[in-house]
Amino acid sequence: MISKPLAGREREFAELRALLDHRDYGDRALVLLGEAGIGKTVLLNALSQHAAGLGFRVLTVVGRAAECDLPLAGLHRLLLPVRVDAGLPADLSEAPGGPQAAEALVPVLTGLSERAPVLLTVDDAGQMDTASLESLAFAAHRLTARRIAMVIAARGPAAPPGFEACFPELRLLRLPYAAAATLLDRIPAVPRGHARERVLAGAEGNPQALVELADAATRDRQAHRHSAVGPLAPTGRLVAETVAKLAHLPPDTLAALLIAAVAEDDDQAPVPADPRALLPAEEIGLVRVDETGLRFTHPLVRPAVYHAAPFTARAAAHRELAGALFERADRRAWHLAAASVRSDEDAAALLEATAGRPGTSDAAARARALQRAADLSTTRHDRARRLVAAAENARDTGQADWVADLATAALGLADAPGLSTAVREAAGWAQAWTSRQTAAFAALVSVAREAAPDHPALAWRALASAALVAHHTGHPEHRAEVRRRLTRMPEHPCAGTWRSWIRVCVDSFDDAREALTHLHGSSARITPGLTPDPGLSDGGLSGLEPGAVACLLDESELAVTLLRDAEHGQGTQASREVSPAALATLGRALLDTGRWDQALAVASNAQAHGERYGMDLLTASAALVSATVHALRGDSAAARAAAEQTRGRIDPAESRLVAAEALRALALAADADEEHLVAYLRHRRLLPDGRPLHARVSLLDLADLAAAAVRANEIPDARQLIEGAVGRLTGPPSPRLAQIIARARALLADPGDAEAHFEEGMAISTGDQWPFERAQLMYDYGAWLRRSRRINDAKPYFAAALDTFQQLGAEPWARRVGSELRASGINPSGAAPSPEAITGLSPQQREVVVMAGMGLTNREIADRLVLSPRTVAAHLYRSYPKLGVSRRHQLHGLIGDL
């Protein structure tokens, strides 16, 4: 059986399986069509394995060009395994041909099908002899209602002889980008980083092209060529076929093809002055020419044409194309540089100048141009300088491995002090997103110290990266070192932005007032969606770094607003600009604000990005967002599996943040499984020896620790731990942390003291910005009220909490609220409310109820009625008992009746 067919071919494979599932009626044959390398053979093999698992007798044959003139040669090889069983002669080529052979095939297949269902597959049918194909087509027409299925695969758009317009056709199209990326990641020794993007762009969704270009990229890297000029150089069968065809083309046709081959995606492939020069190439299927221009018919034709030509011919073609692109300075410079065979400072300078123009192309293209300019540089200094500039642009793509490669190449060349520190800063940034956190921290702090006198912007940026590393490592000595260095930093226009970021990274909950003031003041100047350019200039603002600051300061809604565009990026799939910090943080901000499905989607994208570019820290952070959502929804197996993905990637000693989030996800999973003592012990590990494992994560876990302690009957121990952790805060907590602390204290307080803590938490006006945590507080308050025999007071809290838990899909918590409601005399799945009950509401309550019944969220209702979300929630809480409902979705039926 095949459980994992070719990526992106699930629909086609299902259609092929249906041919076997409906073998007792309908069409007996199906024609599978598509260009070379599109995946026909893989699908046929998958179908054959699936059929064998179902008990089919599978007969397969592949067409051979050498036998296409031998009548019945293909049929002979197809039936060879069953020749004796079917009573066939030793050589079918000696049997009568034409209609007699076709008629004889029907009883043979019928006899075979009486023992077991039969699947016949023919691959490369276009190279099979006509007599065999016509015999199979004749048999297919006469085998209706027999247990026989037939799949004929052929290259190209037309069915092979005998099957034209007679049988259903399944055409394989090129894979979309996402499916091609998934397939590429399944290839052994898959190229990473920028080489991976070149493979995806060059393959254009053709699976075989993916395989051959991936192999070419790997060989290029092993040979230390890293050629950025022209397409990759595959050497597989399809390329060999194309090269053989080129040998028979006239010189003017070859020249026109080469001009088209040197053109890239940004260049319009030119059609020669006399289009008839392309006619021979078009006749043999290498190109198509129409009113839209010239296109190669297969992704491997372009690299075959390009690399079949000698370098002198390629250089001349690049220069000719540069002359045609005089209005495109960046592309003209690129082609002139591509025509250079050795060091050429004029070409390098021109390429550097056009790459540095604001708004020119995208970050990946700029980095690629600067890397090529470095290759052409005549001095070590210029080469190092351009490699550093390339690394700066590669950083904007979020490709840590590419940045590391460029920085490594520049390390031995950079002798000027400022250039040397810039190289080390780039290398440190790349290390920061791998599992080498300690090494990254040492490098970045060293750069911040050395660059401060003469290169203040570089020093600030290095210290900002070091602060992020300190946030991830969680080591007190790292945080203390960043604080010390911060007091010695020089003044600079970007100092305010970076100072806020640095202070928040090392002191998330300590004296955040200054950072908050700067954040709200700067957010008005931010253009959402722009990727930051924190280069050596002014460190201008965008929505990314401030968005991460907002998340760490628990300004969660502002964080989502500022970070929303970061996950989508700018530009194409292959060149979009990405901030890893923003990508990692957006998933967490979406989780905190109750957008759990969106959080899972963002985490999936972030995890894929991290895996593709060697960014282990990003991969682990994204996996833990998914693990937390799964745990809160009660899917403990998925939560544990996601948390386990971080093992082996990140050493817990290198990142206490990852270790703490993994512990928390596993503790929440145990809590969902009602494993109370296990959950408590895992929560407790976030406060080893009474001190936070991680300064932020451990504090956000305090209320869940308290709840687990109550269920495990470990209240005195938890009370001591929590008060010790709160006592170490040196500044006022954020509203979110204050709500968490209030809930924790209420859960662990003596019965007579609990209500004051619950009311303190409920009084936090922005508490519903974190809907799940707010619902937890309301559930616990309602449970306390019910135990205090104040059932009527408890009901609104239970109803509101249940509504939130059901919207989020937090099934374990919804079950707990359901139990409390039943104990309060309310059936959570009771009958729909009476329409007359709405008359007992105030006018504003009626408006709120109607909008909620229409499916609007609290925030949307608040915007329409010019109220706060908290006021909307209060109206709903008070309305539920009057309406006799406990769930928000019951309001929909009420509004429908009205």
What would your notes on this structure say?
By secondary structure, the protein is mainly alpha-helical. Among the domains are: 162 residues, Rossmann fold; 53 residues; 183 residues, Serine Threonine Protein Phosphatase 5, Tetratricopeptide repeat, CATH 1.25.40; 70 residues, Winged helix-like DNA-binding domain superfamily/Winged helix DNA-binding domain (Arc Repressor Mutant, subunit A, Orthogonal Bundle). It is 61% helix and 4% strand. The chain contains 45 helices and 7 strands. A 5-stranded parallel sheet has the order 2-3-4-1-5, with helices on both faces. A two-stranded antiparallel ribbon has the order 6-7. A hairpin with a 2-residue loop joins strand 6 and strand 7. Helix 5 packs across helix 6 and helix 24 runs parallel beside helix 26. It is globular and about 95 Å long. The two termini are 54 Å apart.
Quick take:
By secondary structure, the chain is mainly alpha-helical. It is built from 45 helices and seven strands. The protein is 61% helix and 4% strand.
Short descriptors:
898 residues; Rossmann fold; globular; mainly alpha; five-stranded parallel beta sheet; Serine Threonine Protein Phosphatase 5, Tetratricopeptide repeat; two-stranded antiparallel ribbon; 45 helices
Global shape: globular
Q: Tally the beta strands.
A: 7
Q: Please outline the major beta sheet.
A: 5 strands, parallel
Instruction: Report Rg.
Output: 34 Å
Q: Which structural class matches the secondary elements? A: mainly alpha
The second-level CATH architecture of the domain at 393-575 is Alpha Horseshoe
Percent helix among the residues?
A: 55-70%
What integer is the average pLDDT? Answer: 82
CATH class of the domain at 393-575, anyone?
Answer: Mainly Alpha
- In percent, how much strand structure appears in the residues? under 5%
